[in-house]
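Dear colleague,

As promised, here are the two records you asked about, laid out in our usual form so they can be pasted straight into your sheet.

NAME FIELD: protein one
SEQUENCE, THEN STRUCTURE:
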Amino acid sequence: RVGLDQPLLEQYARWLLSAATGDLGRSHRTGEPAGAIVLSRLPATALLAVSAAILGAACGVLLALASVVARSRVARLATDGLASGLASTPGFLVGLILLLVLAHWLRWLPYGGYIVGPGGEDGSPELSRLLLPSASLAARETGRVALIVGAALRESLRARYSQVATAKGLSPSAVVVRHALPNALIALLSASGLSLVFLVGGAVAVESVFGWPGIGRLMAEAASARDFPMLSAIVLLVGTAVALVNLTIDFAYTLVDPRLRVGWHQSEARAA
């Protein structure tokens, strides 16, 4: 009935033809269109990923600044060690720790879930239920951003313009904030494309831990039920989103970094 008895190449060709017309198949579990189910889960994952990306970028930049401006060697080692530890810690482990401490022991925040606001019509989750999954997903991103920005800051501080600014009498903090940081953030922009991949991958476990009804949890449910049409739809839509985001970042990178525009114009002049 669903064509699983056909050869794999024939199944794949039939799926490609259907996907080209917008038909991503029907879920083996529910019988509903797989594309519609994925799109219905997209807002929850987008909210979680965007909030985690913003939180991770902000905390990561602050941690990198703390590491660079630290005067003692112990403080630098502590901040660098914290960044490395966060970058290597999976989000679901951070989520379980936060659940145990903040939700179970201290009872400051709810365990999770996705509850609509007052009246139940606007479809927006309660902020208190967003904090724990967002912080869990942002922990690894914080470490990655801190390592990337910290390395870029140290490289910028060794550059000639930073040395000239120091020779003019600017304070170390002014040199870091006004001269080194803007150039270091360019490196963060170039690495932000991979952030989406890490966030989507981490969302699979984090959404399952907190009961967040997003694409990550849907992927875990589809994998456990061997719902191949659903998995195919998720992979196709997420892969398309990642490709579009990376393409947008590449264009933005050429606008932000004037060195690329100069190199492009020079190559055009040599070609002419």
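NAME FIELD: protein two
SEQUENCE, THEN STRUCTURE:
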Amino acid sequence: TLFDLIKTQKDIPIPMIRVIMRQILQGLSYIHSKGIIHRDIKGGNILMHSPTGSGRVILKIADFGEIKNAQNNLQQSIFMSQRGTPAYMAPDLILANANNLTKADSKVDIWSLGMLLYQITTHTFPYNPHNEYEISQQQFVESSSKDVGI
């Protein structure tokens, strides 16, 4: 998995990171075009395969246990209270309750991919990944203290 690569290789070359991100984005683009939101994008859910002698890597998005079908709001999650992995979870999902959980859209997957990119390049997380409350507090404080401009 991508998680295994991150765990074992300290300095992943930038060209390899570009290949990894491009393939994950292509996969997300495809599932989003089908109206599917994954909601648990993380290194452990990205399978990696390198065909012998090819010199290339193929990535696949796995573990669709938390998906949501955006087209008909069909909730596919087995556990409504567990919506993903806290360290990668978008603020929308951390702060969501049962009533507004179905409002999550494809942006939550892009947020998770951003967290994954941060982890690949720094080998850490910008927030404490062990406590949903602390993560949401840090996200709220940091987002409200920054001047968001274009």
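A couple of things worth noting about protein two: The CA atoms of residues 96 and 144 lie 18 Å apart. Residues 74-82 have pLDDT under 50 and may be disordered.

Best,
R.
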